[in-house]
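INTERNAL AUDIT FORM
Audit reference: QA-55
Scope: verify that the stored structure record matches its stored sequence.
Auditor: D.O.
Record contents follow.
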Amino acid sequence: QVQLAESGGGLVQVGGSLRLSCAASGFRFSNYPMSWYRQTPGKERELVAVIGSFGGVTQYADSVKGRFTISRDNAKNMVYLQMNSLKIEDTGVYYCHARVPVTYWGQGTQVTVSS
């Protein structure tokens, strides 16, 4: 069965960095785009970044452009989110997402940015 497992969240100060990882299994990983979403307090879950199946195409939410970088390693069935220059408003639960074609979510990893 499809499984997505996020890791790498934590507590970081404003301006700091974190790297999130998502381990995927149960499907042909290299065939599908992968995404990161986040749910911040009081808001709906939002798309943060998406990467094409071979990594050549990436898209970002305006709020994270220039600060976050999504990448993938198809040999390891992994997708990453490098987050730099973190802001208070980046605090939330970050989810790995795949549509293969049914939508799957990981359990989420908490990111807390403090001043």
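Auditor finding: record pair retrieved intact. The radius of gyration is 13 Å.
Action required: none
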